[in-house]
Fold this sequence. Notes:
By secondary structure, the chain is mostly helical. It is about 80% helix and about 0% strand. The chain is built from two helices and no strands. The longest helix is centred in the C-terminal third of the chain and has 25 residues, at about 25-50.
Amino acid sequence: MALVLFLLLVAVVLGLIGAVAEGLTYLLIIGIVVLALDLAYVATRWRHSHRRVAR
């Protein structure tokens, strides 16, 4: 859970710096990619956690 929150924070910070600073658009793109990968990671963990069978 800490990894997910850390990656989310990194994505937001990179996105803000990339959007505000002129000439650093690549940071915005990196932030978007990190956010997409983080969401994909959360989706796969969430999907696997619901497949447990109760006995």
